[in-house]
């Protein structure tokens, strides 16, 4: 059975999102979310040592999965 995602008001989600926020949106562990970003499974952008996510890219990813 697929994991149920929390209901989100996308108007309140920041344009640029960090790993813990995306992990909450996807109901995943922070470490696992980071690994998905590193592998290119999640649409992510590395800025220095930090992973960042575009709100619209994550929203589209959720729609497709």
TrEMBL record:
<protein>
    <submittedName>
        <fullName>DNA binding domain, excisionase family</fullName>
    </submittedName>
</protein>
<dbReference type="GO" id="GO:0003677">
    <property type="term" value="F:DNA binding"/>
</dbReference>
<dbReference type="Pfam" id="PF12728">
    <property type="entry name" value="HTH_17"/>
</dbReference>
<dbReference type="InterPro" id="IPR041657">
    <property type="entry name" value="HTH_17"/>
</dbReference>
<feature type="domain" description="Helix-turn-helix">
    <location>
        <begin position="18"/>
        <end position="64"/>
    </location>
</feature>
<dbReference type="InterPro" id="IPR010093">
    <property type="entry name" value="SinI_DNA-bd"/>
</dbReference>
